[in-house]
Design a protein that fits this description.
mainly beta, Immunoglobulin-like, 2 domains
Length: 220
Protein backbone atom coordinates (compact mmCIF):
# COMPACT_ATOMS: atom_id res chain seq x y z
CA UNK A 1 0.00 0.00 0.00
CA UNK A 2 1.47 3.38 -1.02
CA UNK A 3 1.55 6.65 0.90
CA UNK A 4 -1.66 7.80 -0.78
CA UNK A 5 -3.44 4.69 0.44
CA UNK A 6 -2.16 5.29 3.96
CA UNK A 7 -3.46 8.82 3.96
CA UNK A 8 -6.86 7.62 2.81
CA UNK A 9 -7.08 4.58 5.09
CA UNK A 10 -4.57 4.99 7.96
CA UNK A 11 -6.08 2.13 10.00
CA UNK A 12 -5.41 -0.33 7.18
CA UNK A 13 -1.80 0.79 7.02
CA UNK A 14 -1.48 0.23 10.77
CA UNK A 15 -2.75 -3.35 10.44
CA UNK A 16 -0.42 -4.10 7.51
CA UNK A 17 2.52 -2.57 9.39
CA UNK A 18 1.72 -4.63 12.50
CA UNK A 19 1.61 -7.83 10.47
CA UNK A 20 4.85 -7.04 8.65
CA UNK A 21 6.58 -6.33 11.95
CA UNK A 22 5.06 -9.44 13.45
CA UNK A 23 6.35 -11.75 10.74
CA UNK A 24 9.34 -9.65 9.62
CA UNK A 25 8.04 -9.62 6.06
CA UNK A 26 9.81 -7.15 3.76
CA UNK A 27 7.56 -4.63 2.01
CA UNK A 28 6.48 -5.92 -1.37
CA UNK A 29 6.35 -9.58 -0.32
CA UNK A 30 2.72 -10.67 -0.67
CA UNK A 31 0.91 -12.68 1.96
CA UNK A 32 0.12 -16.00 0.31
CA UNK A 33 -2.28 -18.71 1.31
CA UNK A 34 -0.30 -21.87 1.84
CA UNK A 35 -0.72 -25.29 0.31
CA UNK A 36 -3.91 -27.26 0.91
CA UNK A 37 -2.65 -28.90 4.08
CA UNK A 38 -0.55 -26.28 5.86
CA UNK A 39 -1.39 -24.44 7.96
CA UNK A 40 -4.66 -26.26 8.50
CA UNK A 41 -7.47 -24.68 10.48
CA UNK A 42 -10.70 -26.39 11.44
CA UNK A 43 -13.84 -26.57 9.38
CA UNK A 44 -16.51 -24.01 10.19
CA UNK A 45 -17.19 -23.90 13.93
CA UNK A 46 -20.82 -23.67 15.07
CA UNK A 47 -21.72 -22.84 18.68
CA UNK A 48 -24.72 -21.52 20.55
CA UNK A 49 -24.81 -18.04 22.01
CA UNK A 50 -23.25 -18.12 25.49
CA UNK A 51 -21.13 -21.21 24.83
CA UNK A 52 -17.36 -21.36 24.26
CA UNK A 53 -15.76 -21.70 20.84
CA UNK A 54 -12.37 -23.34 20.30
CA UNK A 55 -10.42 -22.43 17.15
CA UNK A 56 -7.57 -24.79 16.29
CA UNK A 57 -4.81 -24.51 13.72
CA UNK A 58 -2.56 -27.45 12.88
CA UNK A 59 1.08 -26.48 12.32
CA UNK A 60 4.48 -28.21 12.27
CA UNK A 61 8.10 -27.55 13.15
CA UNK A 62 8.63 -25.36 10.06
CA UNK A 63 6.70 -22.58 11.78
CA UNK A 64 8.66 -19.75 13.38
CA UNK A 65 5.83 -17.31 14.16
CA UNK A 66 2.06 -17.70 14.52
CA UNK A 67 -0.95 -15.45 15.03
CA UNK A 68 -4.75 -15.58 15.20
CA UNK A 69 -6.74 -12.74 13.67
CA UNK A 70 -10.43 -11.83 13.56
CA UNK A 71 -10.88 -9.99 10.28
CA UNK A 72 -8.14 -7.32 10.50
CA UNK A 73 -7.74 -7.48 14.29
CA UNK A 74 -4.84 -9.44 15.79
CA UNK A 75 -6.05 -11.53 18.73
CA UNK A 76 -2.85 -13.38 19.61
CA UNK A 77 0.68 -13.29 18.22
CA UNK A 78 2.44 -16.33 19.57
CA UNK A 79 1.80 -16.28 23.31
CA UNK A 80 1.34 -12.51 23.35
CA UNK A 81 -2.23 -11.30 23.64
CA UNK A 82 -3.13 -8.32 21.46
CA UNK A 83 -6.87 -8.42 22.05
CA UNK A 84 -8.30 -6.44 24.98
CA UNK A 85 -11.25 -8.86 25.17
CA UNK A 86 -10.82 -10.96 28.33
CA UNK A 87 -13.07 -13.65 26.84
CA UNK A 88 -10.33 -14.62 24.38
CA UNK A 89 -7.61 -16.90 25.77
CA UNK A 90 -4.86 -19.04 24.32
CA UNK A 91 -5.23 -22.81 24.71
CA UNK A 92 -2.09 -24.19 23.10
CA UNK A 93 0.99 -23.06 21.23
CA UNK A 94 2.97 -26.19 20.44
CA UNK A 95 4.91 -27.59 17.50
CA UNK A 96 1.74 -29.21 16.20
CA UNK A 97 -1.15 -26.97 17.24
CA UNK A 98 -1.96 -23.32 17.82
CA UNK A 99 -5.41 -22.81 19.33
CA UNK A 100 -7.48 -20.16 21.10
CA UNK A 101 -10.81 -20.18 22.92
CA UNK A 102 -13.55 -17.56 23.00
CA UNK A 103 -15.74 -17.75 26.10
CA UNK A 104 -19.38 -16.64 26.28
CA UNK A 105 -19.71 -16.26 22.51
CA UNK A 106 -22.15 -13.65 21.22
CA UNK A 107 -23.57 -12.91 17.78
CA UNK A 108 -21.01 -10.16 17.11
CA UNK A 109 -18.23 -12.78 17.37
CA UNK A 110 -19.53 -14.47 14.22
CA UNK A 111 -17.33 -14.20 11.14
CA UNK A 112 -13.95 -15.21 9.69
CA UNK A 113 -10.92 -16.01 11.83
CA UNK A 114 -7.46 -16.41 10.30
CA UNK A 115 -4.52 -18.50 11.46
CA UNK A 116 -1.40 -16.82 10.08
CA UNK A 117 2.03 -18.45 10.25
CA UNK A 118 5.57 -17.61 9.24
CA UNK A 119 7.70 -20.35 7.70
CA UNK A 120 10.78 -20.11 5.47
CA UNK A 121 10.28 -16.34 5.29
CA UNK A 122 6.88 -16.85 3.64
CA UNK A 123 3.67 -16.00 5.51
CA UNK A 124 0.79 -18.39 4.97
CA UNK A 125 -2.79 -18.33 6.17
CA UNK A 126 -5.75 -20.58 6.85
CA UNK A 127 -9.29 -19.42 7.62
CA UNK A 128 -12.17 -20.74 9.70
CA UNK A 129 -15.66 -19.24 9.95
CA UNK A 130 -17.37 -19.02 13.34
CA UNK A 131 -21.16 -19.43 13.24
CA UNK A 132 -23.18 -18.37 16.29
CA UNK A 133 -26.64 -19.86 16.79
CA UNK A 134 -29.29 -18.21 18.96
CA UNK A 135 -32.29 -20.09 20.42
CA UNK A 136 -35.70 -18.85 19.30
CA UNK A 137 -37.22 -16.13 21.43
CA UNK A 138 -40.59 -14.43 21.09
CA UNK A 139 -39.83 -10.76 21.69
CA UNK A 140 -43.28 -9.22 21.13
CA UNK A 141 -46.77 -10.73 21.09
CA UNK A 142 -50.32 -9.37 21.12
CA UNK A 143 -52.14 -9.01 24.43
CA UNK A 144 -55.38 -10.83 25.22
CA UNK A 145 -58.25 -9.23 23.34
CA UNK A 146 -62.07 -9.05 23.47
CA UNK A 147 -63.99 -8.30 20.24
CA UNK A 148 -67.50 -8.44 18.87
CA UNK A 149 -68.54 -11.25 16.54
CA UNK A 150 -67.95 -10.29 12.92
CA UNK A 151 -64.96 -8.09 13.70
CA UNK A 152 -61.55 -8.41 12.08
CA UNK A 153 -58.70 -9.46 14.35
CA UNK A 154 -54.93 -9.28 13.81
CA UNK A 155 -52.61 -11.12 16.18
CA UNK A 156 -48.87 -10.41 16.18
CA UNK A 157 -46.00 -12.65 17.26
CA UNK A 158 -42.47 -11.37 16.57
CA UNK A 159 -39.53 -13.70 17.21
CA UNK A 160 -35.74 -13.57 17.02
CA UNK A 161 -33.14 -16.30 16.60
CA UNK A 162 -30.26 -17.53 14.44
CA UNK A 163 -31.14 -19.18 12.14
CA UNK A 164 -34.31 -17.12 11.81
CA UNK A 165 -37.13 -19.04 13.52
CA UNK A 166 -40.31 -20.22 11.86
CA UNK A 167 -43.39 -18.74 13.53
CA UNK A 168 -46.59 -20.81 13.63
CA UNK A 169 -50.04 -19.95 14.96
CA UNK A 170 -52.45 -22.63 16.22
CA UNK A 171 -55.99 -22.32 17.57
CA UNK A 172 -56.41 -24.26 20.81
CA UNK A 173 -60.13 -24.97 20.69
CA UNK A 174 -62.21 -27.55 22.54
CA UNK A 175 -61.95 -29.70 19.42
CA UNK A 176 -58.18 -29.90 19.68
CA UNK A 177 -55.29 -27.96 18.20
CA UNK A 178 -56.05 -26.60 14.78
CA UNK A 179 -53.34 -25.27 12.46
CA UNK A 180 -54.05 -21.68 11.53
CA UNK A 181 -51.06 -19.96 9.96
CA UNK A 182 -47.29 -19.98 9.49
CA UNK A 183 -46.58 -16.28 9.75
CA UNK A 184 -45.80 -13.63 12.34
CA UNK A 185 -49.19 -12.02 11.77
CA UNK A 186 -52.48 -13.90 12.01
CA UNK A 187 -55.44 -12.13 10.42
CA UNK A 188 -59.00 -13.30 11.07
CA UNK A 189 -61.75 -11.61 9.07
CA UNK A 190 -65.33 -11.77 10.35
CA UNK A 191 -64.46 -13.71 13.49
CA UNK A 192 -67.10 -16.06 14.93
CA UNK A 193 -67.73 -17.28 18.47
CA UNK A 194 -66.39 -20.69 17.43
CA UNK A 195 -63.06 -18.98 16.74
CA UNK A 196 -62.76 -17.65 20.29
CA UNK A 197 -60.32 -19.20 22.74
CA UNK A 198 -56.55 -19.44 23.04
CA UNK A 199 -54.19 -18.97 20.12
CA UNK A 200 -50.71 -20.41 20.52
CA UNK A 201 -47.66 -18.89 18.86
CA UNK A 202 -44.62 -21.14 18.49
CA UNK A 203 -41.14 -20.02 17.33
CA UNK A 204 -38.86 -22.85 16.12
CA UNK A 205 -35.33 -22.92 14.67
CA UNK A 206 -34.00 -26.33 15.88
CA UNK A 207 -31.27 -24.71 18.02
CA UNK A 208 -33.20 -25.22 21.26
CA UNK A 209 -36.73 -26.03 22.39
CA UNK A 210 -39.41 -23.84 20.77
CA UNK A 211 -40.50 -20.65 22.49
CA UNK A 212 -44.27 -20.81 22.97
CA UNK A 213 -46.67 -18.07 24.05
CA UNK A 214 -50.48 -17.81 24.09
CA UNK A 215 -53.05 -15.11 23.39
CA UNK A 216 -56.67 -15.36 24.55
CA UNK A 217 -59.33 -14.08 22.15
CA UNK A 218 -62.83 -13.54 23.55
CA UNK A 219 -65.71 -13.08 21.09
CA UNK A 220 -68.93 -11.49 22.37
Amino acid sequence: MGVGGCLALPWRCLVVLCLRLLFLVPAGVPVRSGDATFPKAMDNVTVRQGESATLRCTVDDRVTRVAWLNRSTILYAGNDKWSIDNRVVILSNTKTQYSIKIHNVDVYDEGPYTCSVQTDNHPKTSRVHLIVQVPPQIVNISSDITVNEGSSVTLMCLAFGRPEPTVTWRHLSGKGQGFVSEDEYLEITGITREQSGEYECSAVNDVAVPDVRKVKVTVN
